Amino acid sequence: MRYAGRIHGWNDERGFGFVTPNGGGDRAFVHVSAFVKPPRRPVDGDLVSYEVGTDARGRLNAGKVRFAGQRVERPARGARLPRPWIAACAVVALIAAMLLGRMPPAVVVVYATLSLVSYLMYGHDKAAAGAGRRRTPEASLHLVDLLGGWPGALVAQHRFRHKTVKASFQVVFWFTVIANIGGVVWLLDSGLAGALSPLLRAD
């Protein structure tokens, strides 16, 4: 069942606020990630439609939130490659480079470790946002992704529906992805990766 209500108490820095149904009733917590393809960031006073669910503590949460008058569009099939698939392609490319002797196994281990760290950081930040706790600085997320954790970040963004709406974050995130890939390509083309392989494999 969908409800119509109004946004209030919106904290744009933390990305959450509350929505109260028109005509009165219990308010529900609403996170920016609950908005369906929003054309802009929410502000106090916005009229929205939404569904209501509960979290593990039994608190009301708004889901599938749309602005009043927002068109409902069906996503085009195959229009965008899902983030987990991009991450999977990156993993396959890294393993292939390692098997071909062009990438030291230690580098693959670094990618795997940082991807796990990034995934956990995104998960922690999403949980902190929902509970109103201290957030993980965006600069920390970007640094880990730049160093090689971006495959894990892609999976986390998809899994937790986190940081996918904030345009400024996504611009910097994809810059870190491109910069990291560029660094790896340079490492391979320069032959430095091959030269380092014996050293990284040394006991």
Automatic annotation (TrEMBL):
One Gene Ontology MF term: mRNA 3'-UTR binding
CDD domains, A to Z: CSP_CDS
InterPro entries in UniProt: Ca-reg_mRNA-binding_domain, CSD, CSP_DNA-bd, DUF1294, NA-bd_OB-fold
SMART domains: CSP
Keyword annotations from UniProtKB, A to Z: Membrane, Phosphoprotein, Transmembrane, Transmembrane helix
Cellular component annotations (GO), alphabetically ordered: cytosol
Domain called CSD: residue spans: 2-67
Gene Ontology BP term (one): regulation of mRNA stability
Coiled coil: none
Pfam families cross-referenced by the UniProt entry: CSD (PF00313), DUF1294 (PF06961)
Membrane spanning stretches: 81-100, 106-124, 167-188
Name of the molecule in the record: Cold shock and DUF1294 domain-containing protein
Origin species: Coralloluteibacterium stylophorae
